[in-house]
Amino acid sequence: MPLMKLDGTERLGFLIHDAARLMRKRFETLASGHGLSSAQWRLLVRVVKDEGVTQARLAEVLEVEPISVSRLVDRMEEGGWIERRQDPSDRRVRLIFPTDKSRQAFEAIRGFAGEVFEQALTGLSPEERQTVLRGLMTIVDNLSDGEAPCQQQTMDKGAAA
């Protein structure tokens, strides 16, 4: 395996991790008024974007253990954020759907996320912003291991999606 050149790329992982951590921290500060944890916010966004998702799929995309998702779903259902419904094609499977309460909160989330994204990208020209986005999408696509690539769908939704 060739050694990495000391051209700054050796810091890539740290920079991506720190950027994600700081964006998440800033988002949590802005969104804290809704009374949801960051794990609950992540689940809520996934359920709103993918109505009728299974708990197993939620565990996969959120990268947590199924038992953790089950507990999270229990708490969110008790709070009126989501509802479980029987899968019409498989009685053993329960599908997760957002409630009106979560759809309204999702709109607020989009506003908070837009603020955080704008703060993160302050000082970059429109061209530099597009370069950053394309670069990150290429990295994700390169490392996806057969998962659906994000390249086209993310570009179609725009930078604030």
Task: Give an account of the 3D structure.
Among the domains are: 36-106, Winged helix-like DNA-binding domain superfamily/Winged helix DNA-binding domain (Arc Repressor Mutant, subunit A, Orthogonal Bundle); 123-161, no CATH class. The longest helix is centred in the C-terminal third of the chain and has 22 residues, at 100-121. The protein has a 3-stranded antiparallel sheet. Strand 2 (82-87) and strand 3 form a beta hairpin. Helix content is 62%, strand content 11%. The chain has 7 helices and 3 strands. Residues 151-161 have low confidence and may be disordered. Helix 2 (38-49) packs across helix 5. It has helices at residues 12-31, 38-49, 55-62, 66-78, 100-121, 126-143, 151-157, and strands at 53-54, 82-87, 90-98. The chain is mainly α. One of its GO terms (molecular function) is DNA binding. Pfam families: MarR. This is MarR family transcriptional regulator.
